[in-house]
């Protein structure tokens, strides 16, 4: 399945946040990776075309590839982004288009965070690059992906490669999951505009008074399964109605509460090969404080790392393995 859900959020003090879950049958990399400025990266494996990073960045990724392949992250100027699975819909090119530069889909996040400052820059990046069909050595297939980004303006954009080329969605609801395409997912929300945090009213039927059984009746009909459309609706509606965060701490708390509703426990999603799909990790980041928060399936305690505490002009990568053993706050030792 290689699922994933993502959202953006803004706190009352005008901080901007991006968050995602990573759902897969195994961890593709549980290291937080710091990439400094002027670090050499590549666009593809077969024809590397090395360039240097303009901006330092931080995110979850894999370092077994020819360069660090980030699945999500943020850079020093506050651009945030991620890749999510786009099953049966993503389309790449076999050859680079004339006048453009080839880019491996799994290398896109790293290359974009290395060179882009805003979502406008991201759009220009995709206009000048061709996503190509190329296997990456650490994965035995070419993953179908779409992309989402946000910056300090709070705008959230979605980039989808399809049969018609690249589709850019700009005025989004701030949520993304997987297939079908974003346009379909947004239209499907129309079926749920009646969802509300307020209880429904009772009625009288043929002289008999019928009352709601309990609190929470305004949420009746909110889908509870783990398919991409259901996760999209669940995240979108809870994001819409959750109490506004006053500051970063409250925003991070809200984000992890929202995404806990789409965390996939082991055993609930099993593919045709018998492999168990689950939420490997959940991550959130702040564009202004340049802070990255995450927890793994195995350890629900949130790990925190600040980009500004790193040396942007370092000459080597730095990796921070994150815990896969549950941590506890013992209060009576």
UniProtKB/TrEMBL annotation:
Any matching Pfam family: CBAH
SUPFAM superfamilies registered for this protein in UniProt: N-terminal nucleophile aminohydrolases (Ntn hydrolases)
Gene Ontology molecular-function annotations: hydrolase activity
Domain Choloylglycine hydrolase/NAAA C-terminal: 4-320
Cross-referenced Gene3D superfamilies: Penicillin V Acylase, Chain A
InterPro entries reported in the protein's UniProt record: CBAH/NAAA_C, Ntn_hydrolases_N, Peptidase_C59
Keywords, ordered alphabetically: Hydrolase
Assigned protein family: Belongs to the peptidase C59 family.
Protein name per UniProt: Penicillin acylase
């Amino acid at each position: 399945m290689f699922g994933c859900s993502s959202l953006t959020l803004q706190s009352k003090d005008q901080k901007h946040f991006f968050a995602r879950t990573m759902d897969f049958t195994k961890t593709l990399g549980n290291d937080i990776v710091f990439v400094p400025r002027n670090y050499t990266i590549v666009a593809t494996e077969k024809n590397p075309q090395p360039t240097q990073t303009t901006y330092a960045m931080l995110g979850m990724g894999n370092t077994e590839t020819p360069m660090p392949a980030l699945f999500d992250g943020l850079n020093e100027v506050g651009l945030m982004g991620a890749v999510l699975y786009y099953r049966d819909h993503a389309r790449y090119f076999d050859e680079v288009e004339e006048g453009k530069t080839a880019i491996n889909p799994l290398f896109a996040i790293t290359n974009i965070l290395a060179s882009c400052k805003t979502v406008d820059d991201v759009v220009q990046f995709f206009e000048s690059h061709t996503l190509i069909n190329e296997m990456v050595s650490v994965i035995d297939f070419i993953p179908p992906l779409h992309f989402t980004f946000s910056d300090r303006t709070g705008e959230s954009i979605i980039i989808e490669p399809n049969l018609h080329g690249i589709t850019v969605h700009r005025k989004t609801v701030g949520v993304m999951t997987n297939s079908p395409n974003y346009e379909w997912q947004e239209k499907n929300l129309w079926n749920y505009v009646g969802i509300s945090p307020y209880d429904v009213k009772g009625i009288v039927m043929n002289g008999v008074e019928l009352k709601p059984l309990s609190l929470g009746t305004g949420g009746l009909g909110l889908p509870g399964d783990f398919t991409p459309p259901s996760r999209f609706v669940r995240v979108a509606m809870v994001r819409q109605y959750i109490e506004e965060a006053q500051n970063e701490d409250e925003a991070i708390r809200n984000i992890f509460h929202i995404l806990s509703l789409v965390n996939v426990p082991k055993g609930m999603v099993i593919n045709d090969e018998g492999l168990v799909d689950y939420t490997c990790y959940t991550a959130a980041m702040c564009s202004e404080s340049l802070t990255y928060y995450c927890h793994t399936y195995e350890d629900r305690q949130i790990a925190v790392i600040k980009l500004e505490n790193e040396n942007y002009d370092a000459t080597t990568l730095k990796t921070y393995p994150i815990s896969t053993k549950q941590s506890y706050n013992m209060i009576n030792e």
